[in-house]
Inverse folding.
DNA sequence: ACAAAAGTGTTGGAGATACACCCATGA
DNA sequence: TCATGGGTGTATCTCCAACACTTTTGT
């Protein structure tokens, strides 16, 4: 029988954030060694992730990774694919880091990937224990990442594009109160194409979980827009 | 650091087969012990699966499980979800089997699930080394299965329904040469609803990978239908 | 008054749906 | 000749895409 002992399972999170302007992804700087031999230039960026602990479910693990990094709880988190190539953590670029930090550098790690959506308006994700080492990077300026994380990231972007319209997600990325123009702008960024204002409004206005508020924008130098909110209860 | 040593990864396959009449799923009888203590009534049906071997990818593992069971190669196989509840293999119903066959009955197993589509016309999946212990069971007569395999099965059915039309799959389940009525019947079974014959034909006929043959059915007691085949090269 | 984004309806076209009869074959 | 499923076209409707002007606010 296959003893399977040199095999670990991790969860990696592709966390998308939106600041009203562009879509970012949360990356961490690979940890450095105290007085160690890894130089600055050898450190790579990576997706946040961790090994699955003994008694947690996969989604609990994803939520934990996120909580530890960003102090955010209760947000949209979806499993989208597992990556298990035996060589996925054995690239030349990752050799030194693994030798430095891993008891068994050749141990095979299978990872279950989740994507998450967080609003950069509501929270301050920098305020976490890891704050110094995390960065929000524009989705089209993602550098070369550790392991196979570029592949995981690309897969996440494709999945998000496929999910945002039919699954009515995307509200997660906005502040609690938002205007329809903000919602449209977000969709345009995710889908990477312009949408027609009137048609977009027709479509979203028939969603049950889009709740109009008796409230308007203030302090803008144009006609103030009506504010809306998102009722997660009303999702089918 | 989490040693992660009491953790294994398996692949489970939900193999759908179509015999021209109904949709079946491939189940195995849990192995019995030579002269053992597990009685017939304690044996359960399960989805085929196996632990991931040291140097194979997840999809290679899925293909291997299928090959070993059915002697079928090169068929449609898609990863759809990973299941990792720590208690997924710890139900009361599974206790005895695990104690009998596993070195560490409490070892946690995370499973990556694939679904596969095979034509029961082309192959004879019974002719395999496990032949005595496998069965094709009608998808709406699936009994209680071992572990969380009922949940995995239900998830696979849902995924197949969502994939069959937009992804132009389903051809995989038919014989190499098939009629449009057979294709329609298959879709009706998967989607569990009746489709309009003329509209269905209009839709499928504009697919590039549906190739009409200069050949007709024989031996049927009605007007013989034109045969078609599926060109996997032409898939977008 | 002006600048800036909010807000609003209609029309045309494409694609989906609904629907009924004749045809070719084997018994 | 009859029973059986094969094969075909059209009218309607619904949904999507394209498009331009008026409104409200702050400066």
């Amino acid at each position: 029988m296959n003893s399977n002992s040199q095999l670990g399972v991790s969860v990696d999170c592709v966390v998308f954030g939106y600041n009203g302007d562009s879509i970012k992804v949360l990356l961490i700087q690979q940890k450095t060694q105290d007085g160690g031999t890894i130089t600055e230039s050898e450190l790579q960026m990576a997706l946040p992730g961790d090994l699955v602990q003994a008694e947690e479910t996969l989604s609990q693990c994803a939520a934990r990774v996120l909580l530890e990094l960003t102090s955010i709880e209760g947000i949209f988190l979806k499993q989208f694919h597992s990556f298990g190539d035996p060589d996925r953590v054995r690239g030349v670029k990752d050799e030194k880091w693994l030798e430095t930090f891993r008891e068994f550098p050749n141990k095979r790690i299978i990872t279950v990937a989740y994507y998450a959506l967080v609003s950069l308006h509501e929270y301050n994700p920098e305020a976490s224990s890891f704050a110094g080492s995390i960065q929000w990077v524009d989705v089209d300026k993602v550098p070369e990442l550790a392991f196979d994380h570029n592949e995981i990231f690309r897969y996440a972007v494709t999945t998000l594009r496929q999910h945002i319209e039919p699954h009515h997600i995307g509200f997660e990325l906005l502040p609690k109160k938002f205007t329809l123009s903000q919602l449209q702008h977000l969709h345009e960024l995710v889908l990477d194409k312009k949408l027609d204002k009137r048609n977009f409004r027709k479509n979203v206005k028939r969603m049950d979980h889009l709740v109009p508020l008796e409230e308007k924008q203030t302090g803008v130098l144009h006609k103030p827009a009506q504010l809306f909110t998102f009722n997660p209860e009303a999702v089918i």
